[in-house]
Write a structure and sequence with these properties.
It is globular and about 60 Å long. The protein is mainly β and 289 residues long. It is built from one helix and 19 strands.
Length: 289
Amino acid sequence: MERRHHVAGTPAIAVPIRVRGMSQEGRYFDEETETARLAGEFIVIRLRNLVDLESELHILNARTQVGGNYRVVWIHTPAGADSYSVGLEMLDAEGDIWGPDSGSAANPADVTPPRAVLECRRCHRKISSPVPEADAEYMGEGFSIALACDACKATTAWQFVSGEVTDPALLPAASPGGTAGESSPKPRVFTRDERTKGRAPLKILVKIIRSKFGKSFFDVCETTNVSRTGFYFTTDQGYDVGEYVEVVMPYHPDSEGIHVQGLVVRVDNFKDTYRKGVAIQLAGMKAAG
C-alpha cells in the first residue's frame, strides 16, 4: 500500500492553532500551540498534553477560525522534554483550514525519507522501514507510529529501537530492476470515501443525562453520525466543551438501558438558528491498536 504523506523535506511553518481532545489519562484538554510542518492533509504540531496513537484531535486554525478532525499517526516524546511532536492525518475538514498558510508536501523524488528500525509493541517483530511521514529530526528514542502489522493482522503501535534487524527476510531487498524493494509494515491510509466509514451516518436515539447547579436534567436526541469513539448530534440545549455527561445509547423509553460516561469535546454554532451541533466522546472508547 503506497504511503500518501511525505513530510520529510517540508519547510517549517508555524501557525497558531487550538487543539482539543482526550489525553492519555482520559482527561479533556484544550491547548493553544502551533504547527511545525504543513504537508497537504498531514500536519506536525507541538503538544504538552500526551495523547494516544490513533486517537482523534480537533484542530482549529487561530487565524482562519476553521477547524477539522485529525488522527494521531505518530508521536515523538524525547526524554525530559516538556512538550513533544505529533504527526496528524486529516480525517475531515469544516472548510479551508489553512488558507494562505497551506503548505505542500515535498516531492518524494527529491527527498529520501529517514529510515528506522521499528518494533511492533504487540508481537515484537522488528523491521527496517522508511518513514516518509516524519522528518529525520524526529527519528530517535521516544518515536512511535501506528502502522498495519501483517503478523498481528491489525493496526498496532511500532516504536523506534536502536540496533539492526538480524532477520535477512525483514531487510530491504534489491529488486531485479536495481531499485530497493521494501518488506515493511503498511501504513493505515484513508481515502476520502474510507474516512466516512469511521463516522457512520446513523440515526440512533440517545438520552444525555446532565447535571448543573445541583439539578439533574436530560436531553433526548437523534444522532447525526456515530464513530468508534463517540457520536455527533444537534440540539436546542446549550452544552459546554469539557462538560461530563451520562449517555444511554441506544435509548428506548420502555427500557432502562446502559449508562455510559461521556465528555463534550466540541460544540458547533450554526448560523440563523438556535440549534447547535455537539460531539460527545464516550469514556473508555479508544481506537484499537
